[in-house]
Each structure stands twice: as C-alpha cells, then as structure tokens.
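Format notes (please read before filing issues)

Several people have asked whether sequences and structure tokens are stored in separate files. They are not. Every record keeps both together, in the order shown below: the sequence lines, then the token lines. Line labels are part of the format and must not be stripped during preprocessing.
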Amino acid sequence: MAILLAATTAWLAAPAAAEESPLTAADRRAMVEQLGATLEANYVFPDKAKTIAAILRRHLDAGDYDAAPDRRALASELTDDLIAASGDLHFAVGVDPDWVADYAAKRDPVRAAALREEERRDEARSNFGFTGLRYLDGNIAYVDLSHFADPELGYDAAAAAMRFIENADAVIYDLRYNNGGHLEMAQLLASQLFPGDKDQELFDYDYTLDGRHVARGQWVLPALPAKRLTGKPVYILTGSTSFSAAEWFAFTMQKLGRATLVGERTAGGAHPVDRKPVGTDFFLQVPIGQIRDPVDRSDFEGRGVTPDHLVPSADALALAQRLAIADLARADPARQADADWFAPTLAPRPAPTTAALKAIAGRYEGRRIDLEGGKLLYTWRERLRLTLEPLGGDLLAIEGVRDFRFRISRKGGKIVALTRINRDGTTTDYARLD
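Then the structure lines:
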C-alpha cells in the first residue's frame, strides 16, 4: 500500500443527479451515522473516533445541520466540525458520487486498470510534481516539487530529476507550496542523499489497512537511477502551506542532520490518510496511521516543523542560496572567490528610486543605457539589448550574463564612466559621453 499524505483540497461538487434530490432530515441523520461508523472503523485513534462521532451526533440532534441546503454544504459543515473536534487538518468530507462508484468498481481489474491510466495521465500534466529543475549560481541544483507523486507512476520523472542534479555541489529542495502526497516518493528522493551501503531508516509508521494493523518502516534504498549526493549540502525550503509528506521529508532530513531547513513553520499534518466511501454520494478523508522519525520516534502533528532559519517563505530561496555558497566556501577556501562574486546578487537590497535610475541612463563609449518602463536597458552595437538589474553599491547585473557585471563610476558625485568588472577581477572603463 502506498502511504498517502496530502492536504485537504476544494472538493468537487456532486453531479446534477445528486443535487436534484432535496436533502431531507433522514438523509442528514443517515449521513452522520454512516460517517461516524466509517470514522470509528478507520481513524488512527479509535477512542478519539468514538468521542468525535458522538460530537457529530450532538450537532445533528441540536439541529446544527438543518440549514445545510445541499450535500456540498453539509459536507463542508461536517469537515469543519471534524477538524474542530480532532485538531487534525487531514480530515475532510467530500461529495463525489463518481469517486464512490469508482471505488467500488476497482474490484473489477479492467476498470481498476483504466482508472490507474487516467491517474497517470493526470499526473503527467503536472510532470509528476517536478515543476522546476535548474542550476543556480554556485553549481547549486534547485528542485521545485508541487507534490509527491506515486513513484509507481512518476518513477521516470523522478529518475530524470535525480540524474539532473547529480553533478551539483549542493541541492535546494523547494517544498514551500507542496501539499504532500506519497511517502514512497519521499523515500526515493531522500535515498539519494545517503550512502547505499548503510542501513538508514527514514520513516517508521503503522496504519490501518482494511481493518488490519500494519507496522513497517522505510529505509534508504540500496539501488538508485542516479549517483548519490552523499556529503553534499542540502537545503529544504518550507512554508506555512508545506503539508504532510512534504513536512515529513523536511522533518526527517533535519532530524538526521542531513538538511538545513529555511523558511516558515509548516502546517503540522503528520498523519497518513486514506479516503473511504460514505453512502453513495460522500467520502471521508481520514487519518489512518502514525509516522515517527527514526531518531526519537516523534512527530509534528498540530505543531509543524520549525526551520533552522526562520524567514518569510518569499525570502527563503535567496537565503538558502547564500547559505549554500557560504558553506561551500568554508569547506573549500578556493571557492571564496565564488562566494564574493555572487554575494551582491543574493543580498537583500532596497529598490532604487526613479531619480537614481534616470541618473544612470545616458550614452557611454560604444553603448547606451535607456530607462524604459522603470527598467534600465543596456544597448550596444545599436541592436543588442539586455536589461540591467541594480545590485546596490552602484553595481549592475546584466540579464543572462554571469561572467561580468557593470559598476557606475563617479567623480565628485557625477557619473563619469561605466566600468565593466570581469569575474577574474580585470576591468574596462567606458567613459560617459553626455
């Protein structure tokens, strides 16, 4: 069984056929009773399940659900009450008779295969969660993951991503907006960060599977489709919307001392979940188990994961890149020149004023700088043009150029030249002509 850890989402409305029949008092009572039975049969905490089911029945008896005009409204109110009673953000009640029918149809192998292929096509449209792969300055690989796909479906995409980053000197995983998914994908990606010849547990968990208790662990995989990144610095970006499997990846790598976390405290959803049908129209998303880290068997349910460097999530990438470059320079002093070169591009800086930009615009030897739409545009040979980005301290980065930048040279407060600064430290001056 694949372990799914995902955030609650906006559920689909019921088809018209389900919406046409009015919701009667008998319908509401049957729904709450069926929901309570499903909850007690599947929730990770059986004693709490009985208490929560009783709370829902009290809401029903008090008439709290009488105003719900339709199934969607009732599902929304039940979701709110489940979360309020349990404190667990994984809970959700949804209206989706098609899904309920598909759940039953999976007993038919032909129908199950067709549904699996439909799932694969849907996942392919989001590249199985790998929404961004690139190399940042400093030979730092960046992996943006929107969710953790089922590796049975997304293995090839994961393998390609793992091969893409295998030559990096450091890696940044961006999980700031990752709502979770399959823990097996987290296991696959995490395995690249550890030696394959050492028994290293990643996750330890137990859960309910069709009324049967299952206890198991996930360990570093001995064989991978890419080279391992053992010993290379790893940084994980987190945000308040990082949820469930994304939190577990971050939490475990932090606990094992394998990654530095940068960003905001995460949402705090530690439990694996499953969907169960309730009647013919509804389903319940219910936490079915517990996961524990391999160090002290703890979790972060309701608390979230606290980063090593707490910063607004919007600022996390720049800080992680600065940390990575600094860490690489400490490990290899020969890379200090790289750290010095990239520092201005990564440092926080205020936006320049319009007056400051206007002062830079003008003609220089063999080139000119224009101010258009609030941006500085650098033109040479009359037809080659790139945008300049102020870096502070009179430094200007050139769009798409990594081996040199410009500095505005002043004399007596007046701009007298545009100085090209090459990465090797050599310079060339272009005198101002106007």
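For reference, the curators noted about this record: DSSP finds twelve helices and 22 strands in the chain. The mean pLDDT is 91.
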